Amino acid sequence: MRWALVVVLAGLAFDPSLLRAPHRDADGAFENPWDQRESSFLDFLRWRLSTNAYDKSSKPLIPLVPNDGASLREPNAPAELTWVGHATFAIHEGDDVVLTDPHFGGRALLPKRQTPPGIPLASVPANAFAVISHSHYDHLDAETVERLPASVGWYVPLGLGEFFRERGRGDVTELDWWQSAQRGRWTITCLPSQHWSLRFGMRRNESLWCAWLIDSGAHRYFFAGDTGYFGGFAVYGRELAPIDVALLPIGGYEPRWLMQYSHMDPAEALQAFRDLGARDMVGMHWGTFDLTDEPLDEAPRELARAVAAAGADPARVHVLAIGERWLLPGQE
């Protein structure tokens, strides 16, 4: 019932033209033109002082697959993904490696990493490049930026370039929504998402947030970063097809009264996948940092329930173990 309601409400409420509207306020801060909401410190206190409806006394069961990362250096590789944890994937296609929101560090500011990275940071080849979705500490990790090879290229939303240059990373490209950059055969496009930004040393919403379409010419990968469910997914499904795989967040969603605007729950992530018209979905943003009320291993169970309730094809909806390699279909 909730799944169907989301579709109806999104269809009635969303104006696609707002995806291309100006997205700075009068003070120069970035904003979402279609739905301008902002939680307050009082909202945060209300959450932290409230009772959690979930029992988190049991140790979460997070699947892990040993992976030394050596495959990332194999030439002429078929297109595959490795889940490193949280929002970090290593896309390996041909001789190229692409990282999404690379985070190999031990903390996301305060929350401690609960599971080790799926591959060693040292396994990332020097010619890799990476995309960053926004400035929050579970997606942008200074330690990781400084430890990865200085030759790694970075594609970031507006306002984050200086963060990398201050750390001696000169190969950084800042993009606004709908702007694209070329790196060899890859086209990297910055897209609107429904989120916000904040980091010590930066004002709230001083830097932009985004999703990414990463197109090798052979395959198209949609990386959502952090986002709430919104009508943009249906627009992308019409304008950016075909999308081979959608990397979508499924965790970090409770309590809904606080998290819904900026974090999808698994049912909404499934609807986003259907809106995008992607061939396959891979869930992310769970199992690594304990950030919200639901147990660290709850998201996959909730996603499975949403798939069954929606009558979706479970063979196209994937939840990987940390360190697991997943070969894109059609290459066997």
List keywords for this structure.
alpha/beta; 20% helix; seven-stranded mixed beta sheet
Major sheet: arrangement of strands: 6-5-4-3-2-1-14
What amount of the residues lies in strands? 15-25%
Provide the residue-averaged pLDDT.
Answer: 93
Distance between the termini: 38 Å
Pattern of helices and strands:
HHEEEEHEHEEEEEHEHHEHEE
Number of helices: 8
Rg, please? 19 Å
Uncertain parts? 1-11
Shape: globular
Count of individual beta strands: 14
Polypeptide structure, described:
This protein has eight helices and 14 strands. 20% of the residues lie in helices and 20% in strands. The N terminus is likely disordered. Helix 7 packs across helix 8. The radius of gyration is 19 Å and the shape is globular. It is α/β, with parallel strands linked by helices and 332 residues long. A seven-stranded mixed β-sheet has the order 6-5-4-3-2-1-14. Helix 8 links the parallel strand 12 and strand 13.
